[in-house]
Design a protein that fits this description.
By secondary structure, the chain is of the alpha/beta class. It has two domains: about 80 residues, no CATH class; about 60 residues, no CATH class. Helices cover about 40% and strands about 15% of the residues. The strands form two sheets. It has a three-stranded parallel sheet with strand order 1-2-3. The chain has a two-stranded antiparallel ribbon with strand order 4-5. The chain starts with a strand and ends in a 16-residue tail after the last helix. About 5% of the residues have low confidence.
């Protein structure tokens, strides 16, 4: 599985327990999960980790923002040369809607979809050998 994670789940995985950390740990321990990033996404990650509002969590991790970034770089592969000026994608290519059901249970309605990539994104996907489906999975039906 090849993944490009957004900054928020990376930060969550580096600073707290939960599913984002499980993804980072799985990428560290398994050869079938590959994480990819770009210089621009890494710069954004460095900026976010250095923000004052995260300072308590960073201190609690017993690591500096720089060390946290290096830990992520130990599991992520940096892809260079995407587009003319190495810009990060400028539009949403996937969306996930997760809504709790009103029946009082812990069940959720999940719908995921993918839109067509722009030229730079298509180049990256081609380099990684990936093809995007129109829909990642059919939404689960909800009984009323």
């Amino acid at each position: 599985m090849r993944l490009v994670l957004d900054t928020n789940p990376i930060v969550s995985g580096l600073l707290w327990k939960g599913p984002p950390r499980a993804v980072l740990m799985a990428a560290r321990e398994r050869n079938d999960i590959l994480l990819y990033s770009s210089p621009r996404l890494l710069a954004e990650l460095a900026n976010v980790l250095a923000r004052k509002k995260l300072s308590t969590a960073v201190v609690a991790s017993r690591r500096s923002p720089e060390v946290l970034l290096q830990r992520y770089l130990q599991v992520a592969r940096v892809v260079l040369g995407i587009g003319a000026n190495n810009r990060a994608p400028s539009r949403i290519t996937a969306a996930a809607v997760v809504l709790p059901l009103a029946d009082g249970s812990a069940r959720e309605l999940r719908i995921r979809c993918v839109v067509r990539p722009d030229r730079s994104q298509a180049i990256l996907l081609d380099r990684l050998g990936l093809k995007l489906p129109e829909r990642l999975r059919a939404p689960q039906t909800v009984e009323m």
